[in-house]
Amino acid sequence: MTKNVNGFIRSSGKVLVNDGGEIQLTGWGIGNWLLCEGYMWDYQNSSRLDRPRRIEAVVRELIGSEKSEQFWQTYRENYFNLNDVKRIKKQGYNSIRLPLNWRLFMEEEPGIHFIESGFEIIDEVIKWCQNEDMYLWLDLHGAPGGQTGANIDDSIDDVPRLLLDADSFEKGLALWEEIAKRYASFEVIAGYDLLNEPIRTADPDRHYSDCEFLVPELIRFYEEAIQRIRQHDSNHCISIEGHHWATDTRVFDRQYDSNWVIHFHRYWDAPFIDIFEPFLALSEKFQVPLWLGETGENRLEWFAAVTGICDQNKISYHFWPYKKMGNDNCSVEIKRPNHWDDFIAYSKGGKKIPYQAALKLFNEYLRLIKTDHAILHDEVDQAILRNGTYRLNGINFDGHTILQNELNNESRMETYALSNAGSIQYLKPNFNATKLCLVGKSNHIPAELAINGKGHLIKTNQFTLEITFEPKERGQIVDVENKGQFPIQLDALTWIKGESN
Known about the structure:
Blueprint: E1 10-12, E2 15-18, E3 21-23, E4 26-29, H1 52-79, H2 82-91, E5 95-101, H3 116-132, E6 135-142, H4 166-183, E7 189-193, H5 215-230, E8 237-241, H6 243-246, E9 260-266, H7 277-286, E10 290-295, H8 300-313, E11 316-319, E12 323-325, E13 332-334, H9 340-347, H10 355-368, E14 375-376, H11 378-385, E15 390-393, E16 416-418, E17 423-427, E18 433-441, E19 447-451, E20 454-458, E21 462-468, E22 477-482, E23 488-497
Parallel strand pairs: 4-5, 4-11, 5-6, 6-7, 7-8, 8-9, 9-10, 10-11, 12-13
Antiparallel strand pairs: 1-2, 2-3, 13-14, 15-23, 16-23, 17-22, 18-21, 18-23, 19-20, 19-22
Helix pairs in contact: 1-10, 2-3, 4-5, 8-11
C-alpha cells in the first residue's frame, strides 16, 4: 500500500511534492475543537456565544469555575480524537488542517509565557496522524490579539490587535518560533498556516471599522514570522493567506520563501473556474502551488464541482468544518440536546438555567459530540472526493465552466443547454460507478441524446436517462451528444456507485 506521509511536504513549481513525488493534499478543517465558533453550536446568532471567550464565560456562569474546567477537558477529549482521524482517513482523505487558538499555548498576560498543556494537544494529534498516515497542517486560527478582528479569531473587541499592538505582534512571532523549535523534525506536519483570514472587511452593519491600513503590518508579520521559523526549521512548507477572508490577492506581491503555498478561501461563489483565476495567475507568476484551505458550507453538487476544478488544476483543498451542530453539509453532524434552546435563550438575556439542569444539559451535549453518537454523512465525503455516488448540476458536468454554449444565465448554477449538434465530455470517476443518471428537459419532442455513440430517444419534455456501465470502465471519457436540431437542457447528473468488486 502506498504511503501518504513520505517525507516533508515541499513546493516544487506549481505542485506540492514529498519523497514519493507529486501529492495533492485533501481533507477537513477541524473547526470548533480548539477554537469554538458559535454557529457550530447552533447558537441562533447569540452574540454571547459567537466566540470561544464568550462561550466559556456563559458556561462558567451556569456551572461555575470547577465544573467549567471539567467540561472543557471532556470537550477536548470527546469532540475530536483518534477515531475521527481514522474516519477521515477511511473516507479517502490524506490530511487534516488543525485550527489553533493562541490562548491554549500562551498566557494572556504581558510578556511571553508558554502553556505546556497546549503543546501536549499538538503532540497527541501528531501521534494520531502518524498512526493513520495522515499529514497535518498547523493553522493559527486565533492569533494573539486577533488577526481578523471578528468572532473567528477570538478577539476581544473585533479589532485585529495582532497587527496594531506591539505586545500581541511579538507574541505571535514568539509562538511560531516556539512551534518551529519543537516540531522542525516532524515529517507528518505538512506545514505552517501562519494566519487564518487576516484583516476582515469593513462592515458598518456589524460595527466593523476599516482596517485596510494594517495590510503593510500583515506583510511585515509574514516576513518576520518566516525569518523566526527559518532560524530553527528549514523543512516545513509555509502557507500565506491574503486579507479580506483570504480572498484578496494584494499581499502576493513578492516571493515570500523558497518553500511556500498561496492559500485562499472560497465560499458561496458560483463554482466555476473564474473564481480560481486570480490565484491561478499568481501560481503561474511565482511558480508556487495553490491551497484552497477553506471551502464548503454549501450544497453537495457545489462541493463536487469545486473539487473537480481543484483536481484539474492540482490544487490541494480542505473543507470546513468536519463536525458541527445544526446542518448536514459536513462529515459529522452533532445531534441537538434536549433543552438546548434554554441555553441559547439564557445567552440572549432569558431566564438562567438552574445549576443541576445546566449540568445535565452539558453532560448530554458532551455525550452527543462524540462521533459515535453523531449523524455520519458519508454522502458529503463522496461528493467532495467523487469516490461514491454523487450529483452534479448540469453546468458542472465536466468540472469547469462552459459559458460559450447556450446557457440560461439566470440559472447558471443549475442548468446547461446542450446546443443542437453539440456535445460535452467528462471522465467517468475512478470508483465502481455502474450507472449514470441524466436529468433534463426538452421543448421539442422527440429529441435524442447519444451517450458514447449509443442513441437514447427522449419522448417527454422532462426526462431521466439511466445508463449502465461496466465496472471495469473506470476513468473513461464519456461523451454526451445532442443528435437533434434543438437545444436540450441538462439539469443534473448523478454517478451511482455499484457494489464493490
